[in-house]
Every structure is written in C-alpha cells, then in structure tokens.
Design the sequence.
C-alpha cells in the first residue's frame, strides 16, 4: 500500500467527519468557482462587446455610463432622444439630400415656389428654368442640400438607433426593441478588429421599404429566437415603453419577422431590430411640432405664410406632392395598398424624427495598419457644441427638443466602468469567498486535530511497522491534500452546476448566456503576481483562474495540514503504542 | 542473530530525576531460537523490546541485529531496518480499524524494501485460518481472529526476529494456545527467531529458552540484592 492508499483509507475510516469537512470545503470552492465563472464570463462578454463595430457613441447629454449601458448593452433606460439632424451631421451629401427631402420644410418651400411661379405668371420654358435655378439655389442654401454633414469627413459608417420599446413574449420575457436602419447589419460590423460582420441564420435583413410589408419588417437576435420560439413570418407588436410601467401599452402595429441573426455573443442576441421607418410611424414616436416650434410662434410675414401653408396640409401630403419622393417609389405604397389599414403608408417627416443614439465608426485613414485615433479625439470635438449649429435649417422643427449631445468612446467608457465599479465588486466577492475557503480549510485542521488522540495510536502502530517519521508526516499531509482535492473537484462541479442553473437568470439580466462548460476566461499568470516572481516563460502563460482554485485549495490544505503533520511527526511511539 | 551489549536506559521523571530502567550487560538470541522473556510488571520488558526494535534508543550500549549494529544509526535508518528485519505482535493487537484484514497484513510489507504481495498476504491469512475473513475490518473480527491477523502481519515482511509482547494476554483461554502454536510454528518454518514476553509459565515452558529479566537486568538485580541485604 502506498501513502495515498493509506491516507484514503484513513479518510474513509473517519467517514462522517471527513464527509462534513469535504462538504464544507466544497461549498467554499463552489462559491469561488461560481463567482469566477459568472463574473469572468460576463466580463468577457462585455469586453467582447467592448470590441465594438463602432468607436464613437453619440446620445443625449447625461451619464456616459448610462449612455453606454443603454445603447451598447440595451440594459439601462435610454436618457432622452436627440434630434435626427445630429445623425445627418455624420452623413455624406447624397444621404443628407435624400433624407432632407422628406422634411416638411422641403415640401413647403416647393409648394411655395409653385405658388409664386403661378402668381407671377411665369410660364415660358426659359423663365421656368431661370426660376427653378434661382429657387433651387436658395432652397439648397437654406437646407444645405449640397453640403456633406459637419463630421462626414470623420465618418466611415454611421447608424442611428432608437430605443424605448420592448416586446414581451408569451412566457413573459421582455426583449428590447431597437429601431434602426438596414445598414446596421449590412455596413456596421459586430467587431472592427477582427472584422466580424453580422450574419443571418435564417431569412434576410429588413428593407427600408418592402412592397409586401411596407415599413414594418423586423430582425430578431439568436437569443430572442431561441427563447421565444419566434420564426420567420411571425408578427410581433411592440410594447410602448417599459412593459412594467403603468402607462405602457401595446402598439397596434404588426412587424413581420424576416430574419434571424446568427449568435453574435453580444447584447444584440437579446434584441429585436425594427425598421426605423416603421418604428417612427408607431403611435407616440413622432415628435409633436405644432405648439413647440419656431413655426408655432410665427412672427414675420414669411413665417406666417409658411404656417398657413403647413396648416392646410396633412403630414403625408407634403411627400405625396414631392416629385423626388415619388421617384423613390414611395407613391407605390399607396398604389399597392401595402401597409394599409391603420398603418401609415408614408415615412415620418424629418422634423418629427428623433434618435436615441448614433453609432459611429470613424474613418481611420487609408492604411489599415494605422492606429485609428479619431475615435478618441472626436468625442471632445463633438461635445464642444458643433452639433447644435445643424438645427437651424427648418422652421418646423421643435424648439424645446433635447439639444445637448454627448459623444463618448464606448471602449473607454466601458473600461472605466469596469475598473471603477465592477472590478472592485469582483475583488470583494472573491475576498469573501476566499475567506469561506480558508475557513473550510481550517475545518480540515480542526477535523484532523480533533482526531489526533486516536491517530497517535495509529501513527505509533504504523511507525512500529517500520514507517519513518517523514512517511507518517507525508500520510497526514496527503490526507488533507486528498480531502482538499476531492472537495475542490466537487466544488468545481457544483460551481458549474450552479452557474448552469443560474444561467436563465444571468441571461435575463445581462444578455450573457453561461453554460456548464463555460469556464472563466484565461488570464496571464503574470496578472496574479505582477510577473515579478515568475520566470518570463511562465508569466506569459494564460490560464483560467478556475483551474488555480483546486491547486490553491491543495496548497491551503498543505499549509493547514502542516500542524497536525508535525504533531504526527513528533509522536512518541513508545508512549502512544501501549502494549 | 541478536546481540545486546551493555545496554543502559533510564527515564527522566517530571522532577528532573533520572531513573534507570535497564542495565543489561549481555544478551543473545541465535537465529531461529525461540526465547521467552519473563519478569514482573515494570521491570523493563517492553522497553527492552522497543530498544531491540529500534523504536527507542538506549542511553548507551549496542544492539546488533542480523550483524547490523542498530544503535549506531539514525532513527530513519533504524526505521528501515525494523521494517525489513523485525516483526512485532502486540498485546492489544494494534490493527488499524480502517483497513481490512488483508490490508492490515499488507501494511506489514508496505514499509519494507520488498514488493507488495497481496497474494502472500492472503496466503498468510489462510495459514492462520482466516482465509474467509480477508475483507473483514477489525471490528468484524473476534479477539482471537484479531490476534491471528496481527501474527500474519508480523510475519508479512519475512523478518529475522519476531518480537511478541504478551500476545495472549487479551485472548480467551481456548485460543491462547492456538496463537502460541501459530507463532512458534510459522517462525520455525521460516527460521525466525522469537523473543516473546509473557507472564505465563505454562507458555514459557514450551520455548527453547526462558530468560527472567530480573536476572538479566542489573538494575532489578541490584535493587533486589539491596532489599535482601537490608532485610
């Protein structure tokens, strides 16, 4: 029999005592493993999301963390909305022009031009051309149709998003609805470095306008599809605002699911993406203009004339009369009858639009190897107030709308959040659970020490059979290490079982899915001791901290087992042996 | 096979006074010789066995076991020599409770420089009549059976010398002779010398040689002489 077998027999012989000691240690290890696994995996998921497909986030002025939490992780409530024009400030001239043509201002000025043309009796072609040129120049100058956005030269990709609505499944799970544009999936990436594009496991990306479903198409994340059972062809009705709030209600608008995303490992897995045009058209999503605009307080003759022109129109009329919009096929909606009934067939006018935030991937230069620093230098520039100057183009836009914008680098914000709040909490939790481990390890000491009187006789017998003092000491240490190993393994399995059991709860709160076989992310060994006491080759090795728990417990068992082992070493055989 | 020369041992009492226990000028046992050691309680019989086994170091003198001077070595080497050359049977059996009969016998081989041989352990148990009790733990055995396991364990390392400290004291009268026969017969077969402590003259008569420690130990002898002189 070897030392290990003798130690194991001894543990077996002290059945209940050994079992209680092992259970106590296993519970400690279970807690440590659970904290490490859950925290590590959530941190990793956040850090993975931290490698965003964008490097600047623009939202309403408020807390940076709330902005990042609401727009990146879809967790906190969004602060407020910001004007749609801020999004246009990052667009190129072509996009701006197209978007601006869906404004009340554009439609109104066009009507005014036609009226003026008729009133002045200009009907010959030459005069018509001259008038159009003059009018277009004036209009273009007012609306800035020929200009690119203020920050366009920094922009690689820009996508606006709208938050605030939820969809509640039959099982009561609430998922975030994100109103956005198709380019969220086609141009924006999950991650810039490495470049990971969005992919669909089923279906396709929604279209800005679809002949069958109009503006009402949606794409769902992998988690939503898995947990809710939604599939392509199903329809959903979003809830306006927080579903738990008293004033929330279900929109009477059906969105048709046309695509299911592949798992991204980010918060996007737990979200439903609605076509922004459809999102705007839902009840309560349009900004009210009448009482809250420069136009509402018309003072000059010109402003009064514009007001009269506006009051004679219904919102959709402007667009129907616009030849440019007709060219883009918007008229087709009315002709085909798609999105009929109570669902509106025309997109919302620009002045009534707001967005929750703007996701911006900055342009980092032509050389791919260049480090893109724009994402770090642009936020302060935006915060200095450049955006508000973009609001003076239309007399129809609300005067009191939120104007103050905040631009942040999401990576810096999330990193700062972790270093300031989350990491200290983890260390406190780890310290507490390590204390539990130490207490349970001391349980080994107490357990072995309490049995020392009985053991002294056993030790003396083993010594009489020829065992050296060192061997007896080894048997004692082996016993405590063996118990720590068994407890460590049981605790480790228990920790992962607990983690898997808590997975639905974790996923509900963080959008991070944690399975039984998901281990805490690897950390270089140098991280634990600052690399000072380790050889270079060793400090560069990365290991999951979970895998250090069991060896750590065994080391702890050696430390606490040394006292009884020394006591065994010193046992006086002649006195303890008896006859 | 065993030779003791001028062994002296004394114990220090709590008040610091040193009390001599043993003073044996010479004592020898030949290979395969079966010797009984008699003597009243407290005359140093167990201490002598511990010194011979190397568990206790004498204050002075030599113990030569199988041509090896045990007393000049460190405790670790004495442990090794004991594991290889000495078998020990105790009055209270001293079987380890957590181990089966077979494992208790294997423990007798564990610390010797011999290969662990489970078959031999089982064979020894069969020879002492416990072939049907191999897997039984000590608490499942009778007193007589326990002592038979202890005998098998003492023989497991094929020792040169078997030390037995009142091996029948706790055994019922029906089994006493059986245990003695078992020890003597097995040792005779393997040419193992025996030094057995007993209070039983009936047992003593069966051995090759009977030694009274009172005659051997000068400490006791001198004390007895002084008592007789003063009387």
Sequence:
């Amino acid at each position: 029999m070897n030392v290990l077998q003798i130690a194991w027999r001894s543990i077996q012989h002290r059945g209940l005592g050994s079992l209680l000691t092992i259970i106590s240690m296993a519970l400690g290890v279970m807690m440590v493993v659970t904290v490490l696994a859950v925290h590590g995996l959530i941190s990793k998921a956040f850090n993975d999301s931290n490698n965003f497909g964008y490097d600047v986030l623009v939202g309403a002025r408020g807390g940076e963390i709330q902005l990042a939490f609401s727009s990146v992780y879809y967790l906190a409530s969004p602060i407020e909305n910001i004007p749609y024009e801020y999004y246009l400030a990052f667009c190129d001239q072509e996009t701006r022009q197209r978007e601006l043509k869906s404004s009340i201002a554009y439609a109104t000025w066009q009507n005014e031009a036609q009226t003026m043309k008729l009133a002045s009796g200009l009907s010959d072609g030459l005069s018509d051309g001259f008038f159009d040129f003059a009018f277009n120049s004036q209009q273009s100058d007012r609306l800035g149709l020929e200009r690119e956005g203020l920050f366009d030269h920094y922009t690689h990709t820009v996508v606006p998003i709208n938050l605030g609505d939820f969809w509640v499944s039959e099982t009561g799970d609430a998922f975030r609805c994100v109103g956005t544009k198709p380019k969220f999936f086609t141009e924006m990436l999950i991650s810039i470095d490495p470049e990971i594009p969005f992919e669909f496991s089923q279906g396709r990306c929604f279209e800005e306008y679809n002949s069958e479903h109009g503006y009402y198409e949606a794409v769902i994340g992998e988690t939503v599809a898995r947990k809710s059972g939604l599939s392509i062809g199903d329809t959903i009705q979003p809830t306006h605002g927080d579903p738990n709030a008293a004033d929330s209600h279900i929109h009477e608008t059906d969105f048709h699911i046309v695509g299911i995303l592949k798992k991204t490992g980010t918060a996007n897995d737990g979200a439903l993406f609605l076509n922004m045009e459809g999102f705007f058209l839902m009840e309560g999503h349009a900004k009210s203009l009448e009482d809250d605009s420069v136009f509402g307080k018309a003072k000059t003759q010109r402003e009064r004339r514009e007001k009269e022109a506006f009051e004679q129109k219904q919102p959709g009329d402007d667009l129907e009369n616009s030849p440019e919009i007709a060219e883009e096929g918007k008229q087709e909606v009315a002709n085909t009858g798609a999105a009929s009934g109570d669902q509106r067939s025309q997109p919302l006018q620009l002045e009534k639009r707001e967005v929750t935030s703007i996701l911006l991937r900055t342009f980092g230069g032509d050389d791919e190897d260049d480090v893109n620093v724009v994402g770090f230098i642009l936020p302060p520039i935006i915060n200095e107030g450049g955006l508000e100057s973009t609001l003076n183009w239309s007399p129809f836009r609300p005067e009191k709308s939120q104007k103050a914008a905040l631009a942040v680098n999401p990576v810096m914000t999330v990193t700062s959040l972790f270093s300031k709040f989350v990491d200290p909490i983890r260390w406190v939790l780890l310290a507490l659970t390590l204390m539990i481990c130490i207490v349970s390890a001391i349980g080994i000491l107490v357990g072995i020490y309490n049995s020392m009187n009985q053991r002294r006789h056993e030790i003396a017998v083993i010594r009489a059979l020829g065992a050296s003092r060192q061997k007896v000491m080894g048997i004692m240490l082996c016993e405590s290490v063996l118990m720590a190993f068994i407890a460590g393994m049981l605790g480790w399995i228990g920790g992962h079982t607990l983690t898997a059991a808590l997975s639905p709860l974790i996923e509900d709160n963080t959008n991070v899915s944690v399975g039984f076989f998901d281990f805490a992310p690897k950390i270089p060994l140098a991280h634990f001791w600052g690399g000072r006491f380790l050889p270079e080759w060793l400090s560069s090795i990365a290991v999951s901290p979970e895998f250090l728990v069991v060896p750590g417990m065994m080391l702890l068992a050696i430390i606490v087992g040394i006292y009884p082992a020394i006591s065994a070493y010193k046992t006086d055989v002649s006195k303890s042996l008896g006859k | 096979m065993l030779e003791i020369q001028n062994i002296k041992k004394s114990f220090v009492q709590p008040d610091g006074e040193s009390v001599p226990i043993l003073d044996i000028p010479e004592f020898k046992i030949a290979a395969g010789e079966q010797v009984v050691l008699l003597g009243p309680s407290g005359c140093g019989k167990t201490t002598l066995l511990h010194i011979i086994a190397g568990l206790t170091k004498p204050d002075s003198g030599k113990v030569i076991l199988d041509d090896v001077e045990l007393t000049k070595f460190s405790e670790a080497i004495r442990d090794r020599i004991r594991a290889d050359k000495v078998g020990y049977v105790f009055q209270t059996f001293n079987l380890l409770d957590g181990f089966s009969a077979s494992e208790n016998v294997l423990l007798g081989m564990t610390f010797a420089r011999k290969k662990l041989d489970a078959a031999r352990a089982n064979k020894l148990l069969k020879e002492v009549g416990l072939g049907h009790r191999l897997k039984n733990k000590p608490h499942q055995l009778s007193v007589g059976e326990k002592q038979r396991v202890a005998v098998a364990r003492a023989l497991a390392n094929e020792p040169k010398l078997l030390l037995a400290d009142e091996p029948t004291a706790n055994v019922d009268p029906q089994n006493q002779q059986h245990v003695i026969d078992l020890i003597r017969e097995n040792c005779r077969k393997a040419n193992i010398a025996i030094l057995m402590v007993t209070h039983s003259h009936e047992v003593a008569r069966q051995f090759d040689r009977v030694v009274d420690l009172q005659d051997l130990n000068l400490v006791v002898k001198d004390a007895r002489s002084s008592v007789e002189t003063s009387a």
About this structure: The radius of gyration of chain A is 34 Å. Chain A touches chain B through 26 residues (CB under 8 Å). The longest strand of chain A covers residues 155-162.
